[in-house]
Amino acid sequence: MSGLFLSELKLSHFRSHRKAVLELDPRPVAIYGPNGAGKTNILEAISLLSPGRGLRRAAADDLVRRPEALGWKVSAVLHSLHQVH
Questions:
Q1: Could you tell me which residues come within 8 angstroms of residue 30 by beta carbon, excluding any fewer than 6 positions away?
Q2: What is the pLDDT of residues 25-36, one digit of tens each?
Q3: pLDDT digit string (tens) for 32-82?
Q4: Whole-angstrom Cα distance, residue 31 to residue 44?
Q5: Which of 14, 16, 43, 44 meets the CB 3.0–4.6 Å disulfide criterion with 38?
Q6: Nearest-CA neighbor of 49 among 14, 17, 25, 81?
Q7: Which residues pair with 4 in a beta bridge?
Q8: b/e string for 36-64 if b means 16 or more Cβ within 10 A?
């Protein structure tokens, strides 16, 4: 097991995902599916967990799911060494 891993990712009204919950363990993950399924959107959500503007450098307003435009939320549980964040 590496020193850092993501055990849970929750998305709400983020890009193409109305609601998504991923529960993970320290093993490597492969994300697959047809074009337009939201694979890159998951990676973009994860990229927002570190400082900066994310994978695609999108503005916050561009991350909201359309047509609802209710605002978006990304939450995660990260494990590093012997801590949970």
A1: none
A2: 989 999 999 999
A3: 999 999 999 999 999 988 887 677 777 777 777 777 778 888 999 999 877
A4: 13
A5: 16
A6: 14
A7: 80
A8: eebeebbebbbebeeeeebeeeeeeeebe
For residues 74 and 48, the answer to whether their CB atoms sit within 8 Å is yes
Cβ–Cβ < 8 Å for 18, 83 = no
Question: Hunting for tokens 């529960």 — which residue is that?
Answer: 23
Report the distance separating Cα 52 and Cα 2, nearest Å.
23
- Residue 14's DSSP bridge partners are 17, 64
CA 53-14-6 angle, to 5 degrees, is 70
Residue with tokens 């849970």: 8
